[in-house]
Specification:
There is one protein chain. The chain is built from 29 helices and no strands. The chain has 671 residues and is mostly helical. α16 crosses α27. It is globular, with a radius of gyration of 30 Å. This is Striatin interacting protein 2. It holds the Pfam family N1221.
């Protein structure tokens, strides 16, 4: 294969590889799969620069998809999954290494390259590539693979691995492919606009003109704030709690120290010329959030009780209306979106999938300690022969840490995507996934993850730049030394770990938002000092989600905590959007009520089960099947009639309608 041969010759070569994939000899099949992987990686021996490698990789991936390679790889992957001999051999082995998953890793690598390359749009995409992207997206999200979406096959691999039935499965590659598949089929979830973007938009509207300059992401919540609540504090104002003292945690940094504020590379241009002063509008840079019906009803009810001493009580009109509508109009029409089909496929084993993902997250967390009964997530990183030199040991140590970081990144992104898209599809789909996460101890697991020196985790350097693809295939490999490995890369921060931390904070926010009993879990697990330490990472989005988690539990932490943590209280007020009648900073009688975790979760589970039964249970009791009594709906239904109906129709009319006397006077008489 040569990148310079014409397109038809390239297609003919790929067709020969496709035919060769069907041979029975395992070694020959692996050799062909490696050749396909080489093409997907851009046939790098023919390239001189990294740009060339990426260009030909993209060209070849679309060619491979057009020739049906992905479907052939899927069949091989299914065959490897069902290979009972390989599974039983791996179970009996005392130590599993890279050699036990060679075939699986090659197949998953090709599939990952195809999914990720086709998913990403570029400006110079050809028209046929655009149509191929849409076709591939629909194909991955549809139940075309044994009646299930492709993601379900990967979820099955995860559960088989965690149940110890297939300990040789390369989990890092499986999780990465699963994350990118769901990202491709469901779409990306954009983060909210930062405070600086909202301020810029308000100022542009006031000026009455649009700026052609793109908005720049805020580096830190404190960077541009002239009245920084964390700035110029005296030692007497230090607000560390007694349980917050940790000799391993670094002291709080000055938010205006540019060396410690996390900035995305390359550094963004200044928002304004240095001579121009940043003028902030008075008040908060956003309007308060309002849950229209609930917040307004709560406000009116409180006002009536306060000024008139009268309450209307709970109104169940809306609930009765919804129930009557469901009974009257029959089953609801459910649009078969990608999220809907994924949920339907996941529903029977949803609990197993959630538990498996959290097991992997726990095993990959930097705070977890090795246990003999825990799952081994290093099967696809450990070599057959263990290192014998210091240099080899250092390289393996970096590989192991990087391996764990990637697993945490993939799982955190995957869980966040599932929560966001199921919430958009139907609120109860979101609630059942959330409840499974809560029951599987996701809340204490995330808090345990953050109960570490978070600055060290964010600034970890577990990568070897010269070994990164495609750099390593177009440049001469320099000699690795212990000093070069210890120095690491030039990046001041590990964006992979920062991404994971933000995802986990967002998941924690979604699990606890508007849930009184789950918010109290944050208090019981003493999350406040853990979250406060996370504020030392001077990155806007991460600080925002930490402050949100502190905000929802502030009223339960007591007056003394609020009094001694005024810096945090000020930061919450300045940075987090508030809601109508938001009394987050004050404990009142209603919110100080005793919390019954079991009762609240059981009530939610009952509603979820009713939803699943109504929407997905096909074996309903016929006596309770909803009856459609809407005239327009009934007349609009298509009724299948027998073939000989038109022959006897006139006779039926004559016998049943015309020849029957109708007593119209009876309609005027009282019954």
């Amino acid at each position: 294969y040569d990148n310079n041969i014409n397109y038809e010759e390239q297609r003919a070569y790929v067709m020969r590889l496709l035919d060769a994939l069907e041979v029975t000899d395992r070694d020959k099949r692996l050799k062909v799969a490696r050749a396909i992987l080489y093409l997907a990686q851009g046939a790098f021996d023919e390239c001189d620069t990294e740009v060339d490698v990426l260009h030909w990789s993209r060209h070849n991936v679309f060619l491979l998809y057009d020739m049906g390679i992905f479907t052939a790889l899927l069949e091989l992957l299914s065959m490897e999954m069902d290979n009972s001999q390989a599974c039983s051999s791996a179970v009996r082995k005392p130590a599993i290494s890279l050699a036990d998953s060679t075939e699986l890793r090659v197949l998953l690598s090709i599939m990952y390259l195809m999914v990720e390359t086709i998913r990403v749009q570029t400006e110079d995409d050809r028209p046929e590539w655009i149509s191929a992207r849409e076709a591939f997206k629909n194909e991955l999200g549809s139940p075309l693979y044994n009646g299930e979406p492709f993601a379900l096959l990967l979820f099955t691999m995860v559960t088989k691995f965690c149940s110890m039935n297939a300990p040789h499965f390369p989990m890092k590659k499986v999780l990465l492919l699963l994350w990118k598949t769901i990202l491709f089929t469901l779409g990306a979830a954009s983060p909210p606009a930062s405070a600086m973007e909202l301020i810029e938009q308000q100022q542009q509207q006031k000026r009455g003109r649009r700026s052609r300059r793109p908005l720049v992401k805020q580096d830190s919540l404190d960077t541009y704030n002239e009245r920084d609540p964390f700035k110029n504090d005296d030692a007497r104002d230090e607000e560390e709690d007694p349980e917050d003292t940790d000799s391993g945690i670094e002291g709080e940094v000055d938010p205006l120290d540019r060396d410690v504020i996390i900035q995305p590379p390359p550094p963004p241009p200044p928002l304004r010329p240095p001579t121009e002063r940043v003028n902030f509008p008075k008040g908060l840079p956003w309007a308060p959030k309002v849950r229209l019906t609930k917040d307004i009803e709560h406000f009116l009810e409180t006002s009536r009780n306060k000024f008139i001493g009268f309450t209307l009580g709970k109104c169940v009109f809306h609930l009765e209306t919804i129930t009557l509508m469901n009974i009257s109009y029959g089953e609801e029409d459910v649009e078969e979106t990608a999220a809907e089909m994924l949920y339907l496929g996941m529903l029977p084993n949803l609990s197993q999938y959630v538990i498996a993902l959290l097991k992997l997250l726990l095993a990959a967390a930097p705070t977890s300690k090795a246990k003999t009964d825990s799952i081994n997530i290093l099967a696809d990183v450990l070599p057959e022969e263990m290192p014998i030199t210091v240099l080899q040991s250092m390289k393996l140590g970096i590989d192991v840490n990087r391996h764990k970081e990637i697993i945490v990144k993939a799982i955190s992104a995957l869980l966040l995507l599932l929560l966001k898209h199921f919430k958009l599809n139907h609120i109860y789909q979101f609630e059942i996934v959330s409840q499974h996460l809560v029951f599987a101890n996701c809340i204490p697991l995330i808090l345990k993850f953050f109960n570490q020196n978070i600055m060290s985790y964010i600034s970890a350097k577990n990568s070897i730049c010269v070994l990164d693809f495609p750099h390593c295939v177009v440049h001469e490999m320099p000699e690795l030394t212990a000093e070069s490995l210890e120095a690491g890369d030039n990046n001041q921060f590990c964006w992979r770990n920062l991404f994971s931390c933000i995802n986990l904070l967002r998941i924690l926010n979604k699990l606890t938002k508007w849930k009184h009993s789950r918010t109290m879990m944050l208090v019981v697990f003493k999350s406040a000092p853990i979250l406060k330490r996370a504020l030392k990472v001077k990155q806007a989005m991460m600080q925002l989600y930490v402050l949100k988690l502190l905000k929802i539990q502030t009223k339960y932490l007591g007056r003394q905590w609020r009094k001694s943590n005024m810096k945090t209280m000020s930061a919450i007020y300045q940075k987090v959007r508030h809601r109508l009648n938001d009394d987050w900073a004050y404990g009142n009688d209603i919110d100080a009520r005793p919390w019954d975790f079991q009762a609240e979760e059981c009530a939610l589970r009952e509603s979820i089960e009713k939803f699943n039964s109504r929407r997905y249970d096909k074996n309903k009791n016929g006596d309770f099947t909803p009856v459609d009594n809407c005239l327009q709906s009934v007349l609009g239904q298509r009724v299948e009639l027998p073939e000989d109906f038109h022959y006897s129709y006139e006779m039926w009319l004559e016998r049943e309608v015309f020849s029957q006397p109708i007593q119209w006077e009876g309609l005027l008489q009282n019954p």
